Hints:
This protein is α+β, with helices and mostly antiparallel strands and 493 residues long.
Amino acid sequence: MSKPVLVIGAGPVGLTMAAELARYGTPVRIIDRLPARTTQSRALAVWPRTLELLDAAGCADAFRATGLRADAVSLHAGNSTLARIPFGTIASPFNYLLMIAQSETERLLEEHLGTFGTPVERGTELTDFVDRDDSVSCTLRHAGGRIETLEAAWLIGCDGAHSFVRGRLGMAFEGDTLPMGFVIADVHVAGLAVPPDEPAIFWHPDGAVMFFPITQGRYRIIADLGSVPLHRPDLGEMQAIVDRRGPGGIILSNPVWLSDFGVNERKVRNYRRGRVFLAGDAAHIHSPAGGQGMNMGMQDAFNLAWKLALVERQDASPRLLNSYSSERSGVARQILSDSRRMTTIVLLRSHLAQRVRNFTVKQGFRIPVVRRAIANRLSGILIGYPDSPLNMGSARGLRGPGPGQRLVSRCSSKQGNRPPRFVLAARDSAEARAMIARHPTLLMPEPCLPPDENGIWLIRPDGYVAAAAKCGNWTVIDMALNGYGRPSKHQGL
C-alpha cells in the first residue's frame, strides 16, 4: 500500500490540500488537534481567482449557494462617498467578491473532501517527525492518548501562524510585528445606508471603521485602536467607535464575537525542507487589509497538490516540487507589500495626509481604468509566476497570456476527479495528436482551442501557462514536458 501524504491542520488551507490530493487519487490523511471545526467567522473573503480554482476542483457551486455576493466595495468619509469600486469589470467568470464565514468555508471543504472517502481525523496531534530519504516518520497522539507511528510519503504543515511543523524544522519566521492593533466584532447592524451586500470602509481623523457583510443584517466590523493597547472590546465600545467614525444612525446589537488582534508581517524563506512543506499561515502572515490571507493559503494548496500528485504517480520528476517554494514565495512577497501599503493608507494619522489621501482617492477613482486596475489587483487574477523555473517559450506576437500567466480554459477547468494533466491548447492537428501520444501521462487526451490560432499553449493543471510558442514550434512544448516528467518511449513527431 502506498504511503499517504500527511496534512497537518484542517483549516481552509489543509482541507483544500487534502481534497485536491484526494481528487487526484493520491493517498492522503489529514489530522487536526482540535476536536471540532471552528464556529467563528474569521476569514470572510473569497476572491475570484480562488473561486476559479474551486470551480476546477468541483465545489464552487456549493460556495456560491452559501455565500453572499458582493458586487462592489465603497470608501467613505462620514456621509461623503469617496469612491465605489465595482467588481463587474473583473475578467473572470466569478466577477464578484464572495463573503462567507470561515466556519462555512471549512464545512463546505470538509464535505467536499468527504466525497472522496477521506475523513478529517480530529483530536489527533503531530508530536514529532523525522525526515528520512524516502519517507517522513511521524508520531501522532490520538484522542484518548493512543500513540501511532506513521510513515508518510510527505508531510505538509498547514497548521497556522504558530505552526508546530515550522518550529520543529527550526525555520525562522522572518518579519515584524507592526505597532498597531485592531478590535473586531461580528454583530447585527441596523441603519447602515449602503447596499446590504457591499463592504464599506469609513475613514475618520481618529482612524478607520470597516463593515463587511456576512449574512443579511449581520456584519464583521473592524476598527483600528490607534495608540490604545490591545484589548477585547464590549458592545458599548464598538458602538461608540461606530458613532464617532461612521456616518451616524447605525445601531449595533446581538454580538456573536468580540475580539482584538495585532498585525504581523512574516514569512519563511523556503516553503520546503526535504519531504516537508509549509503552506498558508505556517509559511506567511500579513495584515488583513485586502482580505488576501486565506485566499493566498488556499492557492498555496492548489499550487502544490498537482505537483505532489504527479510525483507520487511517478508521472513527473521530483524536481518539479522545487518550483513550489519559489513560485509561492514570490506571490507572498507581493501580497505582503500590497497589504502593507493598504494598511499604511488606511491608518494615516496626519490630518494633512488624510485630507490629501481622501482628495486623491475621490478624484483618482473617478477614472474607470483606475477602478478596474484596483478590482483586478484585489481579485487575484493578476497573480502569476513570471520567474517560475517551469516556464518555457514566449507568447510575443500572439494574442494570449505568456508563460507564468493565468489562462482560464474550459478544458483545464473541467478536468474532473482524475490524475492531474496539462492541457494542450492548439489547433487540432496531426502534430498536436502526436504530442499527446508522446506524453500520454502528462497531457489531457484532447487538444483545446487556443487563445490565438497562430499559437500553441501548454496549460498547467492549476490554470497557468507553462509554455507558449508560435504554431509549428513544437520543440518548446516537447522540451517543457520532458523537463517536468518522465517521457514515454514514443520517439519523434
